[in-house]
Amino acid sequence: MLTRQQTLDATYRLRRLRRMKSLRRMVQESTLSPDDFIYPLFVHEGASRREPIGAMPGQFRLSVDLLPAEVEQLSALGVPAVLLFGIASYKDAYASYATQRDSVVPQAIRTIKRANPELVVITDVCVCAYTEHGHCGIVREDGYVDNDASLSILAEMALAHAEAGADIVAPSAMMDGQVQAIREKLDEAGFTETAIMAYSAKYASAFYGPFREAADSAPQFGDRRSYQMDPPNAREAVREVLADVEQGADIVMVKPGLAYLDVVRLVREAVDVPLAVYNVSGEYSMLKAAAEKGWIDERAVGLEMLMAFRRAGADLIITYLAKEAAEWLKGS
Ligand SMILES: [Zn+2]
Fold it and tell me: What value does the mean pLDDT of the chain take?
């Protein structure tokens, strides 16, 4: 029988493998690389328009003509994909701008694909930036967002993006059946190769605040709690994800990231499809603001945060930090 001290000597010496950097590298469980990153881009009409987004220092709304330079920079950094958000030049009750073939997002897709066919183009498919009321679907007279009436518009919007050359469409409206409606529409039109990345577990979160300024998509009345997920629920996220996989989602997503790492882990254990996490605007803005004040080390905290998503089980990270993090990783 070993004494307590002997047991400690013999087994509980976990620090042995932390002694040197090279040893730590050998036993590192998670990795972080620019290959994991997807960079969100906000696009609007016009020319040579590069407008800073106030609440998101370092992020801009870009006109289509500025995209080739932007994607060249991303490719040089090794970031393989962008997620496009369109800013509508006009809005109405039915989001007509969202389904137009020559609106800003299809233009952006064609421009990026001409500049760099290898860059993976993902497009956000939702109507909140395109409706006067700012909701993610068609609003009934009684103010309720009509699920099934919204599906055909979302499917048509996805088709417009696929026709323009999008590699992946990403439905984010949280309407039930949106993945199936889009899959059927794309397949009927012959776009069987276009993949779907579903915002499967998207929570009604206050962490989206700065994004609404960026995309000009704040709801004009009420909130999104009747369709986005309720923050106290985790098991329900698994049900949402399973439903999307059943409907044909190629990639599923949890959004936001930092406050929902338990959900990322649960989903990781429930499905085998690639899992993305959205490191949202509020998370980015908090990091930037605290770093600007000198209260935290932006680079160290930024990388630690991104690694946390990988440790929780995410394969892909949608992050506004993609460019900086790719640079930081080069130097580390
Ligand atoms: Zn939306």
Answer: 95
